[in-house]
Amino acid sequence: MNFLNVLIFFSAISFLIYGIAYFVSTNMKNEFKRFGLEKFGILTAVLELTGAFGLFIGIQNYTILVFASGGLALLMLLGVGVRIKMRDSFLVSLPAFFYFLLNVYILYKTLE
Predict the structure, then answer these.
(1) What burial letters (b/e) apply to 45-74, b meaning 16+ CB within 10 Å?
(2) Is the pTM value of this prediction over 0.70?
(3) What is the rounded distance in angstroms from the CA atom of residue 57 to the CA atom of residue 48?
(4) Does the pLDDT at position 73 exceed 90?
């Protein structure tokens, strides 16, 4: 298993956990309420789960990997934007920024 595959698995497992967490954790739902985006919570969770499965499948199919990593990067860029708009601290915003960069890197290496 090469380094890129390790990063893909890490990102996929993370988004799988985050996607499931929305449905089982009140904390995740409360965050969307705090953002004023509660109507987008389920959509976001489904996109995270879809992206996670896309990353897993993308190890064998680079076209799917491009769409999954690109979609997750866009989702996290929007998440960073929301964190900035809410004036969240750098540390609170760091995970969204990290996952944005991680998926941009996966996308870049896939297209290379």
Answers:
(1) bebbbbbbbbbbebeeeeebbbbbbbbbbb
(2) yes
(3) 14
(4) yes
